[in-house]
Specification:
single chain, mainly beta, Beta-galactosidase, Chain A, domain 5, 7% helix, globular
Length: 385
Amino acid sequence: MKLFGQEYSRPNLLRRVGHLSQVGGVEVLAFAEGFARGVRFVDFRTGTGFRFAPIVDRGFDVGLCEYKGIPIAWTSPNRLPGPWYYEGTGDPEAWLRVGLGGLFNTGGLVTIGNPQTVPTDQYRFTQRPSDEYGIHDRLAVTPASRMSYGEDWQDDRCVLWAGAEIREQIAYGENLTLTRRYTSELGASSFQLHDVVTNEGFFPSPHQMLYHFNVGFPVVSASAELIASLDGEVTPMSFSEDAPASVDRYRQFSDPEPDYGHEAYVVPMAAAEDAKVSVAIVNRQLDARTGGLGVYLRYDRRQLPTYIAWRMMAEGLYVVGMEPASTPFGSRDALLEAGFPVMLAPGETRTYDLEFGILDGADAIDSFIESLPGGRSVGTGQEGR
């Protein structure tokens, strides 16, 4: 493994420290005050300055994320409250007060997008013919169970990992389980996320998934841009009457703007031969000594065919969303009619694999651009390869 500019074997590293935690590792911590008091998180430190923390009591989504002291994740005004402060489902305010914030929030397991009423007649309970599901459903405000973590040596590699289960269940309704596992290693500046959703019930259940990555200042600034390859036309999503709808705006960012709404776009991403999509937000003026800093997201387009670019340039709410999803926004029936596999049969599983990491310096950014698949390149000023 490479740490602090040098290559180390396992014996040569361990003979230099009193405990592995001196250079990195995984441990469970908890917040001590405010609305987050008692909320547990798993603190990953990889020894490169990369640190990220899945929050056990908030869907096992990642909250804190930083690199060499530079914050990567956006922090909402209410920070990271415990799920016990969640106030309901149908009102978007409930999710905004508790669910939003940190590096990413998972939407699902039943619905994503705006609050909606979902038919539930398949569960054969006459008093519940339908039910209301709030913005991005409940996963981000659901505590995990069966959490475990560790540091496993594989020859001279030290693999850092943590796993847990998150369940969405109700009598006469959905019985869905998400098994989630993070892996990284000493010397890395990235993590892999492996999710498996299973319908453990005996009725078909709606299922959608969205990964709402929140990248904030200082990576996001007027000098930042979105980097990816496209294979189709961008479609704006209208959230408010005064939100700008120009499809040319979604890949570029600005300084914080007063009286700003928010905007989002469905972006058709090109995939490489292995079906992987790669997308990044880079800022070449951040850390000018090395040529800039960026973050990248890589995922399987067969699992997550929809990508939503969310752009929020408001003062005090200054964040960019990178959001791969299993479907676009919409009702169950409309998505089924469009051919999306919204329903999950009894015993059926769906798997989702993502990688998130750091692009440190001009060479890393340029290599990322060179690796993009064929298609129209976004934010690079050139055609994709």
